Amino acid sequence: MILVTFALTYEGQIFEKAVKGNPDIRILYTGVGSDRAKKAIDDFLTNNRPSHILASGFAGGVKPDIRRGDLIVDFPDSVTSGPGIIDKLEDSGFSVQKGLILTVDVVVDSNEERLGLGEQRGALAVDMESSAIRESAAAYQIPVLGLRIVTDSIQEPLPVPPEVLLDAAMGKTSIGRLMLHLLMNPGKIGSMIRFAQDCDQCRRQLALASEVAVSLLAAR
Predict the structure, then answer these.
(1) How far, in Å, CA of 34 to CA of 65, rounded?
(2) Residue 81 clears pLDDT 90, i.e. is over it
(3) Nearest to 50 by CA among 8, 1, 106
(4) What is the pLDDT of residues 48-65, one digit of tens each?
(5) What pLDDT score was predicted for residue 219?
């Protein structure tokens, strides 16, 4: 059995529909942030032992050449199918880079912060859950492959402040808070609409990429 994790239901909905009925794939929505992710994974692993974990979802790019829609793949040597997954994704037309997906405590918004993490930590992208997932999985020697699609980057920043875009406790956008912000900042409406459209396309691409990764992990 392979466990596929997403922080948010929105990120994994399309993949979940695609693999519905497959007894060899389990999906876990961890919530946003390391604390929620660790609790969710620890609870799951109490009674379940997947052969691999695919930590999937959205990420923010922190290198100047990383763009929205790029796939970032991060895996240890123990994931022997990792190079094959990259090759298969590239053959399928995805823009893929292998490198560090760094876990951070808060959403990284400013380009100064992004560049600092890219240059000082050698990261390609940042998320808020992967390290907690890896830590919990390591206790059971379960290999973890990170697969993230970039939704915001140095070239394509978030259209509104992170706290407006995502209510971490709710695990989704607060529509009331977002609408109020846009009413007070009407100049951001266009960029927010484009961002929402791009995110929908990103999660569709992520679903396809996750299917590719799962199929190759299962073949090991």
Answers:
(1) 27
(2) no
(3) 1
(4) 999 999 999 999 999 999
(5) 79
